[in-house]
């Protein structure tokens, strides 16, 4: 029997692996089928709304077109005079990366809908998938042209300051000779040029990887060829070691004939392919319980790399034969081909910022922002004791993230701490919070981490951290079938003198030490008993696979967050009908949920004053007489990415205030696990209300939406200039100075000249620490 086992063992192992792959593929197919079955069902449910359309439809716009308007606002930060030159180049890069992701996800989704759910249509505008794609493609040439113009302006400004992008056709003989030697010595050995014919089939082109495409002739036979840019080569080359630089793709483009010798090149361009990256990981996608979910996600990520192209970008125009060839091979239409004269990948701006070290060059960039340390030094020693007495509110990136990390470190060593539970969505590759949680587990604390492996484009990092957590003894769960866990919550449970105590942190943003310096978010830490009990109930629900519960204070999605938001909108509507003071202030990243939009329109018609700060997509159109005339919508686009979500209902002192991880998008309200937490502490509540008032008064970085759906940048026009983000930076700085002086409050303190000098010296020291 042993011999038979040894003989058949390889075949059995192979069969097991085959069954694993078959099951994985089966799950992927079922996932797609179920998703599109749901879409068809959703479309059937909405048909009545389409055939019996109300006038409310004129108050809504398509989410994809609204998003393109948002990205255009981002691009306008690169307009001449808007920011220092390198900052403007950064915004062009951000615009480009945003657009890449938009094509990978949204255009990818709509392309799938055309194939698998032809009856699908947008429930705000009635547009089907094909109509939405055509509308997107029609807007692209104008956006690309604006990006090209701004990029050209920025490069001219940088060149005048000595940081010049050289083009090979403009290089002097000395630079050209040095660059050619560099190409032959350092780059050519890394290249793998390929012709495309019967014996050399069309290669796979990785998503967004730059290639040189050429038309070749050899012995009167035309043929096409490709060269992929080598990942091992430096993107920027500085001939002579100065501040003038040449892009890698420009060098390879110029010397491509050396790579394709003995062929003759008749035309060439730089191209990039954008691939569909919309893998459905949110619904009906969980594998058989016998299959490790981490391995399942790893298999899914491999599949993403091979998904179909949705866009072809060219940096130089070429003839119809070459375009037709690549369109045929990539299975894209001509309307999916876009021409851009600026580099197709602008992420090299980071390297240029590193080069800007002299005083003159520093004028090209805005000084780095350092979050203010607003907590007095003596109170950092035991933040837990401070929280037990009073709630703490932090506003990022204006205030430092370190007090939260200090609290976790204190919890690691606190003998009264029994457990630490948290949800993680996106964390840094070198996360200090994650390292602290690992240390807590090693110290014997019960550490429970919900690590969401489906956080798009962060899957690999989350998979790696989940392995490290498990190896350290943390208990790791991956989320819930059909729902991404997007909430931001951390619960510390203590037992002190026989009494259970809860320290709960609720935030609007991720526990990511890198993005916390770039995104605006709110974080509240409280020992409130009811909130702590809700947090404990929430984590128990996650562990049992059912987060819906009977919460006292939390509003939780997908259970009742949306219903409670609607109920509060209706409450304000009814107050206005009765002649009572009513008001709604909402700050979120996107607004797409049709039911919520309808309720907001109803409230506006009843006279409720509604002020909205919506950074990105806003499917509601304000200021339409008779419908949304009482709704104001602004979008703030500045040096930091607006990311906090705040929901405020009521007028005067009668206000109910929540901070949340959730946007008013259907995916958040119905297909994600989210939390909205009430803010009851008068000081914290007053601070958030004050921030909302400042943002609504912004007339430097705020864009106001009007009844045509378009946005106009606000101007001071005789009023005092209000740049909300800069105001919050200054307030945090003043608060930090007060803390440093021992005041611990938010106001200014009187100091002697000697002490002012000491504070000034310390500030200079701290400003040099990054």
Notes on the structure:
By secondary structure, the chain is α+β, with helices and mostly antiparallel strands. 43% of the residues lie in helices and 19% in strands. Strands 13, 17, 18, 19, 20, 22, 23, 24, 25 and 26 form a ten-stranded mixed β-sheet that branches. Helix 9 (320-330) links the parallel strand 7 (309-314) and strand 8 (337-339). The protein is globular and about 90 Å long. The N and C termini lie far apart (67 Å). Residues 19-54, 745-755 and 765-770 have low confidence and may be disordered.
Could you estimate the helical fraction of the residues in percent?
40-55%
What portion of the residues fall into strands of 2 or more residues?
15-25%
Largest sheet: 10 strands, mixed
- Radius of gyration equals 28 Å
Low-confidence stretches: 19-54, 745-755, 765-770
Mean pLDDT: 88
Measured distance between first and last alpha carbons: 67 Å
Structural class: alpha+beta
Assign an overall shape.
globular
How many distinct helices?
Answer: 22
DSSP strand tally: 26
